[in-house]
């Protein structure tokens, strides 16, 4: 299948490069791994030169809306604390690191003092070494105990890939220490014959929160000797623990602390985070413990050139004749192709599994036209692969066999992939923290690097590439999580009671919501109170009551119909939108069509095919207000926050032509509705406000619907959420408010804190929404401002100018001094419908990478 859709003579993906050598390099400290030597001076082009070549094709220069130059920064050295064992210092020096950066030494000092600490510094700043050195020193002390295991440490990573990579690093660094440090990965891929050895002899066990929740804590008697000696718990990439997933992990960590206390241990928590707002506050909320903050980054940094890239408009027309931009997928595939032809090592980050596969396929085909050997040096990396597939890709990336990778956020995290020249980000990743985390993957040995953000055709991306100050002049977001969410807390109380009877003195550990929940769990016959403790009453495992990733239900197995071969899995929450009958499913560069989806048996049967289109599911939503917690007058209108019930149903899917995104047709589906009780923010307007905004009944529905679409698109700029984490409904006359109403709700049971964050930042959020619509160059609305790709009403009705006037009038009544917003800047969030409503429900849960 040919993917070159451009007219003859204007193929802009394969422009030849003449590489200009670096002539002025910044001296960097020798802080690299011995097996990955830094590049020789002059061997790499300057990032500005690479960008110049990328923009050299016809019409490409106009696609760059802004270029930000971040200058290099010199590092500040310190010395390790005297209490660090000399053998550990010698091992670090043998790895090529003569002196620590100042923040590494500070973090190690706190760890040795018994203070839980969070290191919140930039990508490639040596956070791993900051916690590894005190941990290794303590493990070495423990090896002198009579049983040879007087100290242990537990490492938690959000992904299997990161844990495997960290295990490699620990083994390399600790090799001079002999058998005193026995590091091992314990996750779902660990062979059963190795698991008993790890429990009995491992001193540094690397796992993930899922395995801790389902495997280690429920089997704590088998881990008793390990837990009794537990000195440190390392929580890596802790900024990723947000929303529902973060709330679940917070409760898992409380269960761990409770069991450690039972065995006489009180481990110190060492957390590593990307640069974040108030990291100590977020870390304390995650662990339930006081945490010291180390956020002064003393590491050196090479020059970073960061370009914002807007794909051009095409001659195609979308829904309602709207103009259509070239897709971010197509642009990113071009850039990945270009970089690979130049011999640049790069990663292209994309938000979906399907996108990663598609970018990889397009780049491979285009590279084959130039040099067949290059096609094999690009691959996709995403969640859902089988363990052996993941490991093979990781080895190829480490060895340099792969030059380019199209990846989901599985590789956003701290994998040690040194020596990358460039990062392409296909679509804003949802938060500034993730943006900088992804951009930081390049230049990890201190050399200069290039990052390119390619805008998708949606309101937020379009806003950002034309308002660079929103990215480069604003601090990163606060982490939002709510461990007290009853939908999160209840199953963990059951799991805790199954591990050890839950006593009254345990309740403060789990938070004030326990007192209200425990009687409900008794009434549901999940727990039974005997004397002073609650006991688990069922035969089944309590840990199976919840999926801590918030995905819910058994993963759907994707099976090839003709052979019965298991291709991978899809999260249960995403099955309705991604593997419905007729959906296009991509796996390792091969394309499949879903023949059937059996929800009862959790199996999707697929067959290999070569469709010329992709598929996008559409859904409809109804909403009812259960309880209003807070409301504020906005002139005659009201801004409200509270509990709602949402009924969502996937009703059809669109077929879109590859690369161009042109809509080829819509197919109806017959899938069951799903009900969700969650939290929402909503606003109402009165008839007088409608009159003032010149909104008559004919355009009211379109104006509300357009404002709803754009506000959903803009919320990730103000709350640490992804667009698919939230949904919306707009109603010209809602039966519960008796007024025109727009709702935006959390797409997770019980809420995830995003709607509350929206409530507290409503003035800034809706002001940015209005500006995004008003500044769009289209006439009547397009995907860059008010159209949504997942709209269950087919983006009808929509009225762009009406939405601008409506939001202008609403904001006229917003409180001048929003005390609610000021008081909430640093706090953490908590988290049957109307006919004629326009709606946009959250898509299936983001798939694990």
TrEMBL record:
Residues 814-828 have a biased composition (Basic and acidic residues). The keyword ATP-binding applies. Residues 331-487 form the Helicase C-terminal domain. Transmembrane segments: none annotated. It comes from Streptomyces rochei. Keywords: ATP-binding, Helicase, Hydrolase, Nucleotide-binding. Residues 24-48, 811-849 are annotated as: Disordered. GO terms for molecular function: helicase activity. InterPro entries: DEAD/DEAH_box_helicase_dom, Helicase_ATP-bd, Helicase_C-like, Helicase_put_actinobac, HRQ1_WHD, MZB, P-loop_NTPase. SMART domains: DEXDc, HELICc. It holds the Pfam family DEAD. This is DEAD/DEAH box helicase.
């Amino acid at each position: 299948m040919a993917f070159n859709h451009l007219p003859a003579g204007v193929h802009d993906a394969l422009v030849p490069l003449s590489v200009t050598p670096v002539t002025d390099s910044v001296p960097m400290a020798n802080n690299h791994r011995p097996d990955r030597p830094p590049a020789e001076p002059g061997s790499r082009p300057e990032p500005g030169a690479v960008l110049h070549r990328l923009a050299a094709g016809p019409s490409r220069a106009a696609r760059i809306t802004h270029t930000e130059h971040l200058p290099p920064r010199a590092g500040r050295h310190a010395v390790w604390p005297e209490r660090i064992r000399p053998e550990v210092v010698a091992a670090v020096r043998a790895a090529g690191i003569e002196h620590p950066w100042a923040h590494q030494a500070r973090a190690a000092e706190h760890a040795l003092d018994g203070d839980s600490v969070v290191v919140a510094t930039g990508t490639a700043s040596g956070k791993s070494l900051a916690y590894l050195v005190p941990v290794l020193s303590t493990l070495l002390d423990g090896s002198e105990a009579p049983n040879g295991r007087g100290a242990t440490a537990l490492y938690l990573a959000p992904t299997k890939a990161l844990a495997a990579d960290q295990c490699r690093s620990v083994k390399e660094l600790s090799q001079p220490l002999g058998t005193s440090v026995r590091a091992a990965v314990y996750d779902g891929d660990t062979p059963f014959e190795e698991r008993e050895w790890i429990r009995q002899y491992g001193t540094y066990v690397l796992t993930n929160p899922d395995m801790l929740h389902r495997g280690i804590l429920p089997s704590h008697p088998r881990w008793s000797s390990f837990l009794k000696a537990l000195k440190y718990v390392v929580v890596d990439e802790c900024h990723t623990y947000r929303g529902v997933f973060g709330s679940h992990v917070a409760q898992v960590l409380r269960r761990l602390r409770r069991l450690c206390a039972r065995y006489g241990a009180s481990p110190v928590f060492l957390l590593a985070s990307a640069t974040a707002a108030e990291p100590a506050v977020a870390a304390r909320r995650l662990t339930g413990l006081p945490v010291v903050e180390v956020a002064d980054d003393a590491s050196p940094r090479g020059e970073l050139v960061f370009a914002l890239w807007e794909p051009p408009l095409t001659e195609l027309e979308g829904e309602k004749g709207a103009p259509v931009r070239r897709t971010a997928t197509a642009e990113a595939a071009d850039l990945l192709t270009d970089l690979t032809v130049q011999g640049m090592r790069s990663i292209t980050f994309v938000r979906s599994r399907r996108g990663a596969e598609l970018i990889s396929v397009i780049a491979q085909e285009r590279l084959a036209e130039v040099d067949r050997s290059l096609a094999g040096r690009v691959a996709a990396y995403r969640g859902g692969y089988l363990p052996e597939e993941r490991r093979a890709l990781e080895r190829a990336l480490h060895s340099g066999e792969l030059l380019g990778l199209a990846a989901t956020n599985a590789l956003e995290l701290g994998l040690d992939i040194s020596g990358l020249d460039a990062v392409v980000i296909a679509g804003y990743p949802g938060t500034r923290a993730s943006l900088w985390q992804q951009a930081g993957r390049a230049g990890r040995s201190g050399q200069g690097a290039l990052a390119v953000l390619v805008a998708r055709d949606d309101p937020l991306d379009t806003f950002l590439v034309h308002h660079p100050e929103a990215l480069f002049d604003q601090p990163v977001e606060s982490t939002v999580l709510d461990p007290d969410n009853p939908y999160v807390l209840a199953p963990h109380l059951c799991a805790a009671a199954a591990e050890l009877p839950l006593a009254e003195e345990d309740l403060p550990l789990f938070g004030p919501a326990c007192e209200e929940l425990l009687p409900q769990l008794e009434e549901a016959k999940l727990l039974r109170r005997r004397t002073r403790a609650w006991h688990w009453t069922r035969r089944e495992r309590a840990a199976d009551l919840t999926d801590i990733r918030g995905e819910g239900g058994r993963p759907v197995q994707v099976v090839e119909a003709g052979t019965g071969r298991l291709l991978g899995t899809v999260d249960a929450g995403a099955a309705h939108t991604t593997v419905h009958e007729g959906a296009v499913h991509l796996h390792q560069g091969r394309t499949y069509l879903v023949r059937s989806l059996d929800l009862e048996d959790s199996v999707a049967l697929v067959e290999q095919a070569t469709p010329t289109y992709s598929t996008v599911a559409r859904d409809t939503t109804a909403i009812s207000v259960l309880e209003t917690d807070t409301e504020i007058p906005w002139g005659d209108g009201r801004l409200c926050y509270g509990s709602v019930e949402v009924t969502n149903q996937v009703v059809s899917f669109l077929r879109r032509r590859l690369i161009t995104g042109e809509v080829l047709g819509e197919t109806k589906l017959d899938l069951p509705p799903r009900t969700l009780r969650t939290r929402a923010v909503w606003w109402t307007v009165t008839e007088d406000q409608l009159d003032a905004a010149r909104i008559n009944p004919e355009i009211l529905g379109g104006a509300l619907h357009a404002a709803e679409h754009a506000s959903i698109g803009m919320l990730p700029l103000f709350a640490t959420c992804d667009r698919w984490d939230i949904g919306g409904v707009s109603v010209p006359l809602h039966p519960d408010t008796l007024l025109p109403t727009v709702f935006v709700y959390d797409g997770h049971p019980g809420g995830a804190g995003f709607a509350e964050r929206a409530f507290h930042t409503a003035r800034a959020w809706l002001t940015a929404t209005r500006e995004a619509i008003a500044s769009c160059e289209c006439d009547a609305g397009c995907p860059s401002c008010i159209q949504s790709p997942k709209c269950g009403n087919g983006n009808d009705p929509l009225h762009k100018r009406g939405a601008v006037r409506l939001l202008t009038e609403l904001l006229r009544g917003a409180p001048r001094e929003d005390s609610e917003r000021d008081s909430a800047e640093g706090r953490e969030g908590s988290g049957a419908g109307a006919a004629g409503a326009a709606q946009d429900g959250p898509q299936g849960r983001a798939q694990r990478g």
